[in-house]
Amino acid sequence: LSNRGLTSIPEEVFDITDLEYLVVSKNKLTSIPEAIGRLQKLYRLDAHGNMLTRLPQAIGSLQKLTHLFIHDNQLKEVPSGVCSLPNLKVLSVGNNKLSAFPPGVEKLRKLRELHIYDNQLTEVPPGVCSLSNLEKLSVSNNNLSTFPPGVEKLQKLRELRIYGNQLTEVPSGICSLSNIELLSVGNN
């Protein structure tokens, strides 16, 4: 259902309870209905490139969700339930209007990629440095002045993008990351 000029998701979509993959990207959606909670087999939701200003709390009930793409929208907050999705591997919320991130990101134990670039964050979400499976972290183009301690715990980290912030030093512990392939720190 991508790139169709939709202003709402057709109600009958939420009756397809065996649906596993829903793509509604590049439309004109401003919200996703709470009925998304009926799609309990959903493992991938791609709603990037819309005009979403809010997400339903029901997103937190999608326990099989592994990939959530909600970048390139107008979101000011992410529902706290997102941090309770036990199987989430990729979370992309870049290019929104977030000034804070819900607490509990450390519960996303399976998270491999976290993309929160191009927002208005003043701090990296607390708990990020305890995500031992994290391979890619992009917090570029925010308003960060510090990076939390503990980056050396992210031993699987391959890509760290922290450019375009207000950092005055490279996070301590970077040198102990043996798998790092890309480190982008410019424009700080």
Description:
- The protein has 188 residues and is mainly beta.
- It folds into two domains: 1-97, Leucine-rich repeat, LRR (right-handed beta-alpha superhelix) (Alpha-Beta Horseshoe), CATH 3.80.10.10; 101-112 and 119-187, Leucine-rich repeat, LRR (right-handed beta-alpha superhelix), CATH 3.80.10.
- It is 0% helix and 13% strand.
- It contains no helices and eight strands.
- Strands 1-2-3-4-5-6-7-8 form an eight-stranded parallel sheet, with no helix packed on it.
- It is globular, with a radius of gyration of 17 Å.
- 34% of the residues are buried.
- The model has no long low-confidence stretch (mean pLDDT 96).
- Keywords: Leucine-rich repeat, Repeat.
Largest sheet report:
8 strands, parallel
What is the multimeric organization of the chains shown? single chain
Overall CATH architecture of the largest domain: Alpha-Beta Horseshoe
Number of strands: 8
Q: CATH topology of the largest domain, anyone?
A: Leucine-rich repeat, LRR (right-handed beta-alpha superhelix)
Distance N to C terminus? 39 Å
Could you tell me the strand content as a percent range?
5-15%
Given this structure, which CATH class of the largest domain is correct? Answer: Alpha Beta
Radius of gyration: 17 Å
Extract low-pLDDT stretches: none
Topology:
Elements: E1 21-23, E2 44-46, E3 67-69, E4 90-92, E5 113-115, E6 136-138, E7 159-161, E8 182-184
Parallel strand pairs: 1-2, 2-3, 3-4, 4-5, 5-6, 6-7, 7-8
Compact summary:
With 188 residues, the protein is an all-beta fold.
